[in-house]
Amino acid sequence: MKEITVEDVEYAARLAKLELSEEEKRSMTSQLRDVLRYVAKLNELNTDDVEPTAHVLPIKNVWRPDVREESLPQEKVLGIAPKARDGQHRVPRVVE
Amino acid sequence: MRLNLCSAREIVRMVRQKEASAREVVADVLEAIRRIDPLVKAYLRVDEKGALRQAERLDESLARGEEVGPLAGLPVALKDIFCVEGEETTCASKILRGFYAPYDATVIRLLRGSGAIFVGKTNMDEFAMGSTTENSAFAVTRNPWNLEMIPGGSSGGSAAAVAAREAIVALGSDTGGSIRMPASFCGCVGIKPTYGRVSRFGLVAYASSLDQIGNFGNDVWDCAMVLRAIAGHDSKDSTSADLEVPDYTASLDGEIKGVRMGIPREYFGEGLNKEVRAAIEKAIETLESLGVIVEDVSLPHTEYAIAAYYIIASAEASSNLARYDGVQYGHRTKSPADLEEMYTKTKSEGFGPEVKRRIIMGTYALSSGYYDAYYLKALKVRTLIKRDFEEALKKADCLITPVSPTTAFKIGEKIGDPLTMYLSDIYTISTNLAGLPGISIPCGFDSEGVPISFQLMGRPFGEETILRLGHAYQRVTDFHKKIPPIAE
Question: Which CATH superfamily is domain B3-258 in?
Fold first, then answer.
């Protein structure tokens, strides 16, 4: 597998909506390179016939009856928002 | 007798029989905090008034002869990762500073109902990512046994508070060792129950398939008592197990003769500190002398656990932490020009370096072209690790291992080298991947005077076995009774 580059870090940061300084990009690339080199160890194992485990418990989807249940009151939820008005969260203009 | 030096078991007995009031108990704990916490910095926030108010209300109930819960009067410290209604919950991150939770986590609701008293919120690695508590955005917590050393992490504040008797018991969370490791470094008992044993509703998520809530105490009895109060099914967490919760304290004195305890040989290889090894071998002898049967077992995929863990945990974290976007709660950057800038600036200002590193690593591992090579591969290796345990736990009822390859180390020693830091989680990470319960129990001190502990791992929902063994060990040893000099 090819080694992680500064461009890869920039790309992942953009996907994650993180802004990194040049210094952060540089140190993160070298630290992630070390970690990914270490992680390459997994390729020593043949896993062709192995099922993945995303979750340890043998649970299926859990359903409940489709009835309305009590939820947090609107004023409580909006009360902790950075900006809210008229029962809504406020964000910068999205459409010009 | 200062009441903060008593066990949880003694405290609830004294309060119930009115030998001490809840107010007296809380007052002694608050006094200890004022005296010791300026040195240790276990707490991010202490709620003196609130704790005294809760205690007085409880004392009034008792005076009126009302029924009180099984933990009535017990002061509890909470890792700052649990939502407590109306209280700030920061996860030691700037992005959550000023977030006052609008509801109680299920464990908080259960503890309230049991009569427990909340003293304050403890320090941690930001979003539980770290092994030393140095990744907190707000404070550096120190090991009560040696103030130049780290307390372990990520639940380092909770472990240090209990060890320094600044709390009687505490709650933490454990994604890769975050309860057991700091418990070991601080010399208290820490249990991570089976995945699903305790509801995670209201626990701020890091890696949802690995996160589990657990607790700290100065002995096994106290841990068993609190676990009983917080365990159980919850309709608000679909991954919580719908199983009966045993009365963990009732079975502590049960027979341990004939219990088969496996020693996984991969956990005693290269890299294990000599003093740690010697202390654990001694603990194995002690347990053998009590009638436990020791078996040699193998967990052949142990060396792959850390690699699989960091991919899975980072992948889940990158997804979980996407929610901190400045829209609904928490930090929002000042005067963003547009929505995109609001997201990016909010996250970049709010998250610390380790959190950013894991988000980027997780995003990279899940991105197109790398998903199969990293994430899927790690999930398959997780299957192999889980199978190892299934095999070993057919032969043995539980396993005994070290908690960490070393004892506590100096503040700042490993912070610049993430990979070395990750490698220190080698003995705790596999139980999270396999979902098994694990408990850390003090069994000695190294030549620098900091604690050493061993770990017992159980079968899924086999908490009773590891608690019973741990309790039997503590009946014949006194490592858990040692108090750090600053707490005396």
Answer: Amidase signature (AS) domain (3.90.1300.10)
